[in-house]
Amino acid sequence: MANPVTQDHRQPAATGTAPVAHRRRFEIRSLGEVGALVVLVVVFGALNPSTFLSVGNLQKVLDQAATPLIVGVGATLVILMGCIDLSVEGVMGAAGMTFILTTLHLRGGVESPTDLGFLSFVLAVLVGAALGAVNGLIHTRLKVPSFIVTLGVWFVGLGIGIILFGTSAQPNLSDAAAQWPTRNLLGLPHSFWLAVVVAVLGVVVTRYTKLGRFAYAIGNNEDIARSNGIPVRRIKLYVFVLAGAFSGLAGILAILQLGQGTPSVGASGAAGSSTLFLTIAAVVIGGTSLAGGRGGILRTVLGVFLLTILNNGLLLAGVDPGYRSGVSGLVLILAIVAAAWPLRSRLRIVK
Amino acid sequence: MHRTSRRRLARIAAAVTAATLLLAGCSKTNASSDSGSGGGSSAAPIAKDDLVLVASVINTTNPYMASMIEGAKALSAKLGVPLEVVDSQGSSQTEISKIQAILARGKKAVVMVNTVASSDAKPIVDAVKQAGGYVTIWWNKPDNLEPWDVGNNFVAFQKYSGVESGECTGKALAESLGGKGNVVGLAGVLDSTTSQTRVAGFKNALKAYPNIKLLDLQPANWDPQLGLSVTQNLLTKYPNQIDGIWAADDAMIIGATQATKKANVYDKIKYVSDGLYPDVVSLMKQPNSPVVGETFHRGFMAASIGLYTAYLAATGKIDPSTLPHEKRDSLFKLVCATPKDFEQYTKWDNDVAGWVDTLVNAKDPWSVEPTPLVGQGPEKLPS
Q1: Chain B closest CA to A238's CA: distance in Å?
Q2: What is the model's pLDDT at position A281?
Q3: How far apart are CA B330 and CA B320, in angstroms?
Q4: Which residues contact residue A305 at a Cβ distance below 8 angstroms, ignoring those fewer than 6 apart?
Q5: Which of A115-129, A147-161, A318-332, B353-367 has the lowest mean pLDDT?
Q6: Cβ separation of B239 and A51 shorter than 8 Å?
Q7: DSSP for B18-81?
Q8: Which residue in chain B is spatially nearest to A54 when comparing CA positions?
Q9: InterPro entries, per this entry (chain B) (predicted)?
Q10: How many CA atoms lie within 13 A of A193 on its CB side?
């Protein structure tokens, strides 16, 4: 499996010419996913022409996709290195609670004494980054597999969230704050713009910075990367910190969308399944290899939209809730098989 | 090197043998003291000093669970018996293992469990019985697991009727719409009996109103976030058609109101739900609130009634085997609260300790207002 992967990335450099490199970057395979997405939109649009394709529904899908998109950017970076970050929901809980408790909020009808304004935003992202740093440090310094470390930090983060929550009434945001994510800027919801900023940042990092290129190299083959002088441990740490910060940001956004503080804010994403499951599924469905070294942010964006639209469309089509998760799984498998069909001989994956 | 390792092995073997002997000794003394305390462990009352109260809740952040903990603490203070709170963190495994750990510590446990899932009831009841403790289960148990079949250690199963809750809020919603309009419903986790019974009650209530149309019923898993996103989707699916939203509990109606506020239709829709949580109380306090019906029942009442029933059995004040079946598989009274009268019920919230005082002074967990015993389980679904 490692061989075709390395070849994939060497080829553009070897052939050299710009157009080929450009085509390789998007790769034929992502056309399959784009096709699946288009088919979904056409089918759901035909089933409910008046609702599914309405501007209101489009805006809502974009709003619901925002949180998994932001988490997905971090998750993609981590998975590109061949690691995994399971801590996202814990980080979201800890950062989200930090945010709501330091910003203007109501608890049991009483206004909070602390209001750090924009600073609470920064503080919450820093909490996310700090938990990401814990992930990175334990993984690289103590040489514990990222799967185990981040699983632990998931529960540490949840614990921090629960302690911050304490035993008093549920903290609520003002209606104005709770409506920020769905208010529109240039016709699109704020939450989506936030996700766009993060996704663009992710694309820039993966394409044009050493951090991103080294992450690919580490995912391809860590030993070769190290012997080529790439500071593997440092890069891994930075990527985990970045992923933690993004999860923290997603936690803030999820709390804003809900208008209420809860440590389990990541446990149920807008699309009906938990944020962790949704984003990892989106990353993989998008075509980023769990083994690392292959894939990208834009693929994850595709994956998130596939899953969000699938959920939204099935509900609008009136599929019985009892059948919906089964139907959604089936449609997903069909979409992926169809998307990967032209490449089945080249992939040679039998796992 | 060979010899040292062999010597080390011998030393480990010796330590292990010693430990086993010690443990065996331990269990032997336990067994003898058990039989010494007079035949069956359930017959003899346990002295107050040997007791520990255990309140097991599903999580600690849901307002209902927070209220349960509050009630258990108030009862612990009133009785002068220490309290252990078990946070199941939404997981049956966590719940069962934490309860077992407390039972293993030796003090006789008086336990109230709000089970995460119905199937947890059996292993918990068995563990408590084996340890000689007393347990009351709240909300979830399999219908065929009855306290009188298990024995005195499973003192009682208690809950509020879900059918009654659904009927009460369904009726309030239909009435507020003048008997005509389109409504949608948000259910809890699909396989939860609490959700199923409330939904059945809701649908049953709507039968009396042929001009109320139930457009859609979707699960939102007791979760405010899902309540929000499912309602958003329903608002798109039925643009300008929804006149009323019903939810199986307040966590989800909070999410639903958040969704309608975002869509600027909050005031155009009526809401009903179960639980009268603090956040819903503040919505109802607003003039002309669109929240038109709620049920009132409280976690602190449930937890203290449950713990106190088990405590009475543990201290020999009641003998479960002589109690009528309705006091062992019980349905308690639920209040239908309206915007006009809800404040006369929420007044109890400000005096949890006072209410628990009344409960303990009455020495009877089945007759305290506003939530006396009203019937026997298991609950039947309306046909």
Answers
A1: 31
A2: 86
A3: 13
A4: A37, A61, A65
A5: A318-332
A6: yes
A7: HHHHHHHHHHHHHHHHHHHTTSSTTTSPPPGGGEEEEEEES-SSSHHHHHHHHHHHHHHHHHT-
A8: B236
A9: Peripla_BP_I, SBP_2_dom
A10: 11
Cα separation, B291 vs B295, in Å, equals 12
> Given a cut of 80, is residue B222 above it in pLDDT?
yes
Contact B278 A108 (CB under 8 A): yes
Read off the pLDDT of residues B228-257 as tens digits, 9 standing for 90 and up.
989 988 998 898 899 999 999 998 999 999
Q: Do A54 and B239 touch (CB under 8 A)?
A: yes
**Domain range list for chain B:** 48-161+299-376, 163-296
- Quick check: A254 and B63 CB within 8 A? no
Same fold, B48-161+299-376 and B163-296: yes
The confidence score (pLDDT) of residue B12 equals 57
In chain A, which residues have their Cβ closer than 8 Å to the Cβ of B218?
315, 321
Percent of chain B with pLDDT over 90: 55
CA distance A318 to A332: 18
Most confidently predicted of A338-342, B3-7, B122-126: B122-126
CATH class of B48-161+299-376: alpha beta
Domains with residue ranges and CATH for chain A = 55-318 (1.10.3470)
Q: What is the mean pLDDT of residues A286-297?
A: 84
Residue with tokens 């989200």: A96
Candidate from B190, B224, B226 with C-beta closest to A260 = B224
- Say whether pLDDT at B5 is over 90: no
Mean pLDDT of chain B: 86
Question: What number is the ipTM of this complex?
Answer: 0.71
Alpha-carbon gap: B311 to the closest alpha carbon of chain A (Å): 25
Residue in B89, B236, B263 closest to A51 by CB: B236
Q: Which of B69, B254, B282 is nearest residue A109 as measured by Cβ atoms? A: B282
Output the CA angle B64-A154-B191, nearest 5 degrees: 45
Q: How far apart are CA B328 and CA B318, in angstroms?
A: 12
pLDDT-above-90 percentage for chain A: 38
Which positions in chain A touch B223 (Cβ < 8 Å)?
267-268
- Put simply, whether B262 touches A (Cβ < 8 Å) is yes
Question: CA–CA separation, B105 vs B102, rounded Å?
Answer: 5
Residues in A touching B69 (Cβ below 8 Å): 167
Cβ–Cβ contact B250 with A under 8 A: no
Q: Decide if B316 contacts B186 (C-beta within 8 A).
A: no
- A-chain residues within 8 Å CB-CB of B224? 258, 260, 262
* Percent of residues, chain B, with pLDDT higher than 70: 89
Structure tokens at A233: 């441990």
Does residue B287 carry a pLDDT above 70? yes
For chain B, list the strands marked E by DSSP.
51-57, 83-87, 108-114, 134-138, 154-160, 181-187, 212-219, 244-247, 270-274, 291-296, 329-332, 335-337, 373-376
On the question of pLDDT at B3 being above 70, the answer is: no
**CATH architecture observed for domain B163-296:** 3-Layer(aba) Sandwich (3.40)
Considering only B51-60, B319-328, B338-347, which range has the smallest mean pLDDT?
B338-347
Expressed in angstroms, the distance from the first to the final Cα of chain B is 79
Closest Cβ–Cβ partner in A172, A267, A321 for B279: A172
